[in-house]
Amino acid sequence: MHYTGLIERYRERLPLPADAQAVALGEGRTPLIELQNIPRDIGFDGRIYVKFEGLNPTGSFKDRGMTVAVSAAKHAGSKAIICASTGNTSAAAAAYAARAGMTAFVLIPEGKIALGKLAQAGISGCEVIQIRGNFDDGMRIVRGLSDAMPITVVNSINPWRLQGQKTAAFEIIEELGRAPDYHCLPVGNAGNISAYWMGYREMGPKAPVELPIAPEHFDYARTQVCDNRPIMCGYQAAGAAPFLRGEPVLAPETIATAIRIGAPQSWDYAQAAVSESGGWFAEFADEDILAAQKLLASREGVFCEPASATSVAGALRDIRQGHIRPGSSVVCTLTGHGLKDPDVAIRQAAADPTVVDAEPAAVEKALQAAL
Ligand code: F0G
């Protein structure tokens, strides 16, 4: 059957009005790739999978939330959407607004957006506003403006976003036949870890404790389909690690610009996901994040953006340190595609390309030098 996107696939588990038309681009149904070389390299006898969300239509997991948020906004008669973004949300908002025939306004931090994301927002013709500030400043402005103007906020404070993003957990359970033992995620604004936990809760056994969470966010359709839930591990960049500090970080800084966030909006939900699941937060230096990005590309052929690699940096360290048990199953979400941030990738590339004359002998010499 022709796959149109996650709304039609999971409509009975999404609280959209029955007559809401899906604004869809075939998002979701992303591959769950089992790592083959890295587990062997590190002597891990369990299984490590990556959920490659970089293969969504705009190259990140944001499409899952955006299809639902924009469909709901359009159904409600909204003509314009707005978001603050470190880049991926703006790319998704721009694309789904174009698809829906709506106007999108995106606020992004000047000079701190990866090139691919800037290109995506630009080509769509949405209104790009660069602010002299960071994501948290943009978020504050968006919240204020949306109270004063008839415009729908599509950041993850919009509950439809988390509803859409929870479907990634559904897909993982369908593929594995159960939830993994551990689920590792990069944490920025903290919406995604909250959404996954929502998805796992809805599919798994009833939670022993009710979360202090608004009903529209959680527990829409509780039909249990598996009998376990994962331990949730939230990984942050050390320069932007408010969950490790226990308070907002005023001037967040990291090469992983997607998660350069100091005041996460879904703070309580993410705390609840981690504590209820028996999980933890941890932080990683930029060098560790970049090393994990390169390791994935060079040992497994999977190219994700720096922020995404934080999940793998975390999983590998926690396996090594024994926090993640031997023999267990681990899923790491790779939130965005490597091509989003070509500048960082090129800077990490192994070496400058060899340049030779267009002659067989010259190429052969170059091959022999490398063999
Ligand atoms: N990874 C990538 C590639 C992201 O773009 C983001 C967030 C995250 C991880 C963190 O997810 O915020 O749900 O904890 N990007 C947002 C944006 C903030 O504007 O694109 P989170």
SSE order, one letter for each helix or strand: HEHEHEHEHEHEHHEHEHHEHHEHH
Q: Distance between termini?
A: 47 Å
What level of helicity do the residues show? 40-55%
Shape: globular
Structural class: alpha/beta
Number of helices: 15
Q: What is the radius of gyration computed over CA atoms, rounded to a whole number of angstroms?
A: 21 Å
Uncertain ranges:
none
> Biggest sheet: strands side by side, in what order?
1-2-10-7-8-9
Q: Outline the biggest β-sheet.
A: 6 strands, mixed
Question: Quick recap of the structure?
Answer:
42% of the residues lie in helices and 14% in strands.
What descriptors fit this protein?
alpha/beta; 371 residues; binds ligand F0G; 4-stranded parallel beta sheet; 6-stranded mixed beta sheet
Explain what you see.
- By secondary structure, this protein is an alpha/beta fold.
- Helices cover 42% and strands 14% of the residues.
- It has helices spanning 6-10, 37-42, 62-75, 88-100, 115-124, 135-148, 159-165, 167-176, 191-203, 242-245, 267-277, 286-300, 306-320, 342-348, 360-370, and strands at residues 32-34, 47-52, 80-84, 103-109, 127-131, 152-153, 182-186, 231-237, 280-284, 329-334.
- The strands form 2 sheets. Strands 1-2-10-7-8-9 form a 6-stranded mixed sheet, with helices on both faces.
- The model has no long low-confidence stretch (mean pLDDT 94).
- Ligand F0G binds next to helix 4, helix 9 and helix 13.
